[in-house]
Design brief:
This protein is of the alpha+beta class. Helix content is 41%, strand content 13%. It has one domain. β1 and β2 form a beta hairpin. It comes from Leifsonia soli.
């Protein structure tokens, strides 16, 4: 059995960022630190938008997914 994780010691990295991009259908794009698009998140946001979600909803989802992505990175889950 593995040792329990010290949750207070977790520090979230800046592995991904949300950038406003009015030229995109969703209005936001998620990038990694190298400047490459994070396709799993961006594809999901486009799907949500295509199914009738507002731009504000997609933006909110983008920030929520970025927090989740950072957490997964911090606890070393690929």
């Amino acid at each position: 059995m593995t040792e329990p994780r010290d949750l207070q010691a977790i520090r979230l990295s800046q592995v991904v960022r949300v950038r406003e991009d009015p030229g995109e259908p969703v209005g936001v794009i998620v990038y990694d630190t190298a400047g490459a698009r994070v396709d799993p998140i961006n594809m999901y946001l486009r799907d949500v938008f295509a199914n009738g979600a507002s731009l504000r909803t997609c933006r909110s989802y983008a920030y929520a997914l970025v927090r989740w992505w950072r957490f997964l990175d911090a606890v070393e889950i690929p």
